[in-house]
Amino acid sequence: MNRSTQRGFTLIELVVVIVILGILAAFAVPRFMGLEDQARVAAVNAMAGSLRSAATMAHGVWEAQASGVTPAPTQITVPGVASPVPIVNGYPSNAGIQQLLQDTSGFAINANGNRFTANGSKNANCWVQYNQAANANTPFTLSYGTAPAGSTPQTVQTALQNNC
Question: Quick one: residue 111, left, alpha or beta (phi over 0 = left, psi -120 to 50 = alpha)?
Fold first, then answer.
């Protein structure tokens, strides 16, 4: 007599595996839900860093080109940038800062070229804005979404987390 051997899984074994996968998914999904918002906050912070670097480097080029020149130049020539960058009070103008950035993908840029809003954000207040130097004795400033001017870094981060 031949005895047949059974192959495959029983229905109970399959149900147990599905239940275990469901439990694992219930714990894993909430951990990854907020990553998209955190990524947009990080992108805005990275853009702010790029703006700071570009403006500071342009200021250094302006100081080098303005050394001993009266009146000080109102534009600078930067290798790799097609047209001269307009300068106001030693720093790039609102319109000129965008020329110094190599990559603005992932951001919508306003008509002035100085406000960078993260794409896909919760609302329109997920942005960083470059503000040209108000006078010769002050440097440029950066503004963020709903955070008041001169806010602490913690206030800025809270505002970005709420808006991005």
Answer: alpha
